[in-house]
Amino acid sequence: MEVSVIRSSSQAKISKTELGCRDLRFCFGKSNDKNKIFSRKPNSVCFESQISRFRKAGLRFTLKAVHSDPVLESKSPATFKSLDRLRLFVGLPLDAVSDGNSVNHARAIGAGLKALKLLGVEGVELPVWWGVVENEMGKYDWSGYLAVAEMVQKAGLKLHVSLCFHASSQPRILLPKWVTKIGESQSSIFFADRSGQHYQQCLSLAVDNLAVLDGKTPIQVYQGFCESFKTTFSPFMGSTITGISMGLGPDGELRYPSHHKPAKSGTITGGGEFQCYDTNMLNLLKQYAEANGNPLWGLGGPHDAPTYDQAPNSNSFFKDHGGSWESPYGDFFLSWYSSELVSHGNRLLSLASSIFGDTEVNVYGKVPLMHLWYKTRAHPSELTAGFYNTASRNGYEAVAEMFARNSCKINLPGMDLSDEHQPHDALSSPESLLAQIRTTCNKHRVEVAGQNLAPGAPGGIEQIKKNMLGENKIDLFTYQRMGAHFFSPEHFPSFTEFVRSLSQPELHPDDLPSDEAEATESVQTSSDPNIHLQTA
Predict the structure, then answer these.
(1) Where are the compositionally biased (Polar residues) regions (predicted)?
(2) What is the model's pLDDT at position 456?
């Protein structure tokens, strides 16, 4: 028996034998030797050990050029899903390149790239961290990221780059050391909540144009970073690199870090807290209040807003009826707070557009799906995150208009979330919020891309397909994220079926081969050299 495992196309059919071969776990564990990236933990299924087992069973892997033939002549016209050239990407590990600019999990990533290419995935997304590249001000080390770009190019895949001007807790990736050092003596460069707790994983938007970074403004520093990236990666721009996401805030998203304090175990997350208490944000609020003839309103944020873990209706600000958010003061504060966020987004996206506008790459920005408490009138989670969106006001009009003005696309995470799987007490509706944002983007002719939050959400894959095939179709979807779980037997077969369902025709049952034939016949879809599996 001979079974060929080759790259899928719109008419590819993957055999059961191939699916069995892909039930291999690519382990993205830590190792002192960067070449030994496969975990040896008990109960983990590692690629190298699986190879040994296959050899003992009389199986061997070889590389072989396979002639291309149609997989099947359908007896009746096939019905294709209408996707209008949907582009599917998969996110690489967040720490693909980390401290020291070395490539982590290199062998696993290389194997993963080949597997994705075989499936017909168009490309991968690579997080590029400010804290990894610019450890000294104005000095950039792109070596690790260049190595990954070359790997992607050799694999025949496209690359979407996310420029990350924030830090990460897990995996631990910090801001540049020199920025952290400045923050130790000038904590006001970071956001602060009402208790004075600072969020140190990104800079406060209030310092965008203040010379707080050794005589330079953050906008000037971001500009130097982007210009260096453009120059260094010019051989890849427009060919391998087709898109760039500009980091806009916490987790790369356009928002305030309103939920940065973890919720207490076993409790529903509250509405978050306003992040306007660092010195520079308070200065902006004071100026805005004085300019509007209400200087007393510029002394601080709402005094009657709840804390992180308190239910929104526990204080008077977010109450559905008679809450302060509907008062003249509430409108004043929320208008200022949201406009500062939109202005920040405009500064960064206009910067990205001016730098990358003469290339063939598309520029994106990520807008979060703050869906908790969406079924209330006040929408507290959105308000604290910076979106003045309520039951009577569309807070995404200004956001979409800003993206349109800069000719940028919006990337929306959370397309795997459905209402039925949300906690009832949170009054959440990710589906309604997503529909509102997409409708607003369509009105302003802003193209939308999508992401899932993480693999394994209940009903997630079906929800993703639903969002892809809706009235407002998307042109790019990034599936997050490559790693041990992604390639595990518990997940990878379902992802394989997901990819096939997006690209293949729906055939009449009479046109499908029998189970026995499907398990033995070759999959022939490409004339390129690909993986070939034989039995001895």
Answers:
(1) 521-536
(2) 75
Instruction: Please give the model's pTM, rounded to 2 decimal places.
Output: 0.81
Pairwise CA distance, residues 434 & 355, whole Å: 30
Sequence ranges of the domains in the chain: 87-174+204-261+342-375+389-502
Q: Is 491 helix (H, G, I), strand (E, B) or coil?
A: coil
Q: Where are the alpha helices (DSSP H) in 199-327?
A: 218-232, 279-291
Cβ atoms of 278 and 192 closer than 8 Å? yes
Q: How far apart are CA 149 and CA 158, in angstroms?
A: 9
Six token digits for residue 176: 């540049």
Residues 6+ apart with CB under 8 A from 431: 417, 418, 419
Euclidean distance between CA atoms 208 and 348, whole angstroms: 9
User: What distance in Å separates the CA atoms of residue 382 and residue 514, rounded to the nearest whole number?
Assistant: 52
User: Of 195, 198, 247, nearest to 222 (Cα)?
Assistant: 247
Average pLDDT over the chain reads 81
Quickly list DSSP for 370-418.
--TTTTSSS-HHHHHHT---BTTB-TTHHHHHHHHHTT-EEEE--TT--
Beta bridge partners of 450: 412, 477
Q: Name the DSSP letter for residue 313.
A: G
Question: Which residues have C-beta within 8 Å of that of residue 302, sequence separation ≥ 6?
Answer: 274, 317, 324, 329, 330, 333
| Nearest alpha-carbon partner for 154 in 116, 126, 114, 112 | 114
CATH number of 87-174+204-261+342-375+389-502: 3.20.20.80
Query: In this predicted structure, what is the pLDDT of residue 508?
Result: 44
DSSP reduced 3-state for 338: helix
